[in-house]
Amino acid sequence: MDTVISVRNLNKTYDSGFQALKQLDLDIRKGEIFALLGPNGAGKTTLISIICGIVRPTAGTVLAGGFDIQQQYRAARSKIGLVPQELTTDAFETVWATVTFSRGLFGKPRNPAHIERILKDLSLWDKRNDKIMALSGGMKRRVMIAKALSHEPEILFLDEPTAGVDVELRRDMWQLVEQLRERGVTIILTTHYIQEAEELADRIGVINHGKLVLVDEKNALMQKLGKRELHVQLATPLTRIPDALSALPLTLSEDGLEITFTFDARDEQSGIAPLLRQLEDNGIEFRDLRTRESSLEDIFVHLVHESRNAETTAGRESA
Q: Are strands 258-264 and 227-234 parallel, antiparallel or unpaired?
């Protein structure tokens, strides 16, 4: 699959001395939905701002649609639509005028049919003659998305697009993202709603402390790092795990009424049958069994935790 965004050896150090990005490499494929995850301050917005030409890197190169974002800014930027976190629109303009003007900024000829389609896709058509100042926060967010799509970009960045919005808009956003992907638009999504990434993304990138911790196919990531848990509800409480079972990956709940057995979802030999036999051999009766598989959120938390531990260890060694 063709690469539409190529990032090489990207560094960003601000005047304060804070290093936001560190030797970052990333390729994003044409037509995919790529979810960029990371805690606050991890470098997500800085990375997006550099790719979109808003922030200058300290070092490194970025190609967007085959154009260098610094040396060929206008050509590269014309390929990109950006929906930022902040709601920044002209409060006294109408929805129609705002979106139409945004298209003109990129030198695109007038195309009322295209603007109409965008507004209808975003449930803004009935608001087209309303001034921005009269709209709710959710409607203003929709206008920001319409502006980003006005010049028919090949690449769309959605930086926390559903932060603080209602469930209806979030659902509309998901539907719109799928429609755009079908048209061949490449979408880069940052979100704190892990469910969005799990629902929409083809690939996942996790960034922390300015470094990419991992980039992988979503399904492959779930298989490689996902764990499954067997929860065994006991008939009578235990005070501790019996010595005969101490070698197994078991944890006992605080009330002693549930044992949790963790196993690899990829392993054909899960170990469940031997566990149940050992419980019976040790006179432990159970009332119910249920399984739970790791979510993307579990994996994300695990990766960030590991990254923090690695940073702490590296800091101690350098000291």
A: antiparallel
- DSSP, res 278: H
Rounded (10°) angle between helices 95-105 and 137-149: 30
Segments of the chain assigned E as strands: 3-13, 19-29, 33-37, 59-64, 67-68, 80-83, 155-159, 186-190, 203-208, 211-217, 227-234, 250-252, 258-264, 286-293
Contacts of 197 (CB under 8 A, 6+ apart): 35, 37, 189, 191, 204, 218, 296
Nearest CA-CA partner of 152 in 79, 242, 92? 79
Query: Which 8-state DSSP code applies to residue 131?
Result: B
Classify the phi-psi angles of 266: left when phi > 0, otherwise alpha if psi is within -120 to 50, otherwise beta. alpha
Q: Please answer whether residues 2 and 65 qualify as being in contact, where contact means their C-beta atoms are separated by less than 8 angstroms.
A: no
pLDDT at 205 over 60: yes
Which option is the CATH number for 227-293: 3.30.70.1560, 3.30.450.20, 3.40.309.10, 3.40.50.150? 3.30.70.1560
Could you tell me which CATH class the domain 3-222 is placed in? alpha beta
- Cβ pair 256, 234 in contact under 8 A: yes
Phi and psi at 239, nearest 5°, equal -90, -20
Domain ranges of the chain: 3-222, 227-293
**What b/e string do you get for 288-313 counting C-beta neighbours within 10 Å, with b at 16 or more?**
eeeeeebebebbbeebbeebeeeeee
What confidence tens digit (pLDDT) does each residue in 83-119 have?
887 766 677 899 999 999 999 999 899 999 999 999 9
Single-letter residue type at 176: L
Chain segment 143-190, per-residue pLDDT in tens: 988 999 999 999 999 887 776 666 777 777 788 888 888 888 999 988
Look at residue 317 in the predicted model and tell me its pLDDT.
Answer: 52
